[in-house]
Write a structure and sequence with these properties.
The protein is an alpha+beta fold. It has a single domain, classed as Nuclear Transport Factor 2, Chain: A (Roll). It contains six helices and five strands. It has helices at residues 2-13, 28-50, 54-64, 71-79, 88-106, 171-221; strands spanning 117-120, 131-139, 146-155, 158-166, 169-170. Strands 1-2-3-4-5 form a five-stranded antiparallel sheet. β4 (158-166) and β5 form a beta hairpin.
Length: 222
């Protein structure tokens, strides 16, 4: 599980700084390839500036990652058959909470993977397709390559990610197991409560870390 999460960190970092709009439709494999190379270049250039600057990185994630992920579809797939048990308001709250969880989980990826190489396999026979899988290999400077598949669907002439599979482990299916467990014990309200609690805990942890970092800097400079 930890290995899969680390892999997901890598793959999400490749889509963080994509342009939010495109003049023409871009093939999904081209989108991943061009974005990956651009992001790696930015990370290498601004690594010192980004390192430790949580607010700057989190702002980039919120403004740049959201246009390229279909969080509504991701949340619906993660809920599975339980999606219909949620009211419209609950569905909206679940999507927001799930989005916040993913963003807060992966925002640190930007400043970590400057030494990785990403190879994207071309997608064949794209004519007429509205759903496809883009296969990539994330190769560290030393260590074993990680295979990452992006499940992507086309909406309004734009390709968006709705699931990610790392070394054979699907992000959506992985969360579906957790969601099902929470719903069995506490219903949809229980799941929402658990997600919100997790998000608050992550936010508090970040604030504590920032506070400790600030104290350390002050101590060193006095």
């Amino acid at each position: 599980m930890k290995k899969a999460i680390c892999g997901i960190l890598v793959l999400l970092s490749t889509l963080l700084l994509s342009p939010t709009t495109w003049a023409i439709e871009v093939r999904p494999d081209t989108l991943v390839e061009e974005t990956a190379q651009e992001v790696l270049k930015i990370i290498k250039r601004d690594k010192d500036a980004l390192s430790g600057n949580k607010e700057k990185i989190l702002s980039l994630v919120k403004s740049k990652i959201l246009p390229h992920f279909n969080f509504t579809r991701m949340t619906r797939l993660a809920m599975g058959k339980n999606w219909s048990k949620a009211s419209l308001q609950q569905q909206q709250e679940l999507e927001e909470a799930f989005r916040t969880l993913l963003v807060r989980t992966y925002y640190k990826a930007l400043a970590v993977y400057s030494d990785h190489t990403i190879k994207v396999s071309p997608v064949k026979n794209m004519a007429g397709k509205t759903d496809t899988t883009v296969k990539t290999q994330v190769i560290p400077s030393n260590g074993q390559a990680i295979s990452i598949n992006y499940s992507m669907g086309k909406t309004n002439n734009a390709w968006k990610v709705y699931d990610i599979t790392v070394a054979g482990i699907s992000l959506v299916i992985n969360y579906r197991g957790t969601f099902n467990s929470k719903i069995r014990s506490g219903g949809v309200k229980g799941l929402l409560k658990a997600l919100n609690k997790k998000n608050r805990a992550m936010e508090a942890k970040d604030k504590d870390k920032e506070k400790n970092t600030s104290l350390t800097i002050k101590f060193k400079t006095t």
